[in-house]
Amino acid sequence: MTEAPETQHYSAVLCRCCRQPIPLPAIVVSMAASRREQQLDPASHVVTLRCRACDKEMPYRVSEATEFEGTPRPRVAPARDKSGRSHGHGGFSRAANA
What we know:
Blueprint: E1 9-14, E2 21-23, H1 26-37, E3 46-50, E4 57-61, E5 66-69
Antiparallel strand pairs: 1-2, 1-5, 3-4
């Protein structure tokens, strides 16, 4: 008898900019579960998450989370030049405090 492969599920919120799912970190999921057990208001629990698709960061309520099938999008690191610097700040380097 063959067993059907189990489909994976993950909790995520939809990005407000590009509407792609942003997976909730495991610690946030466990904190939300403990808040439900303590009968605290889940709508008051807010976390700031960065979208893996458009790289925008915004606050989301944990109560907005839904279950999605499949696996979450992998995290992509920003592009780096040959010196190892990230291009995340418009090509500018940080100034030293003097």
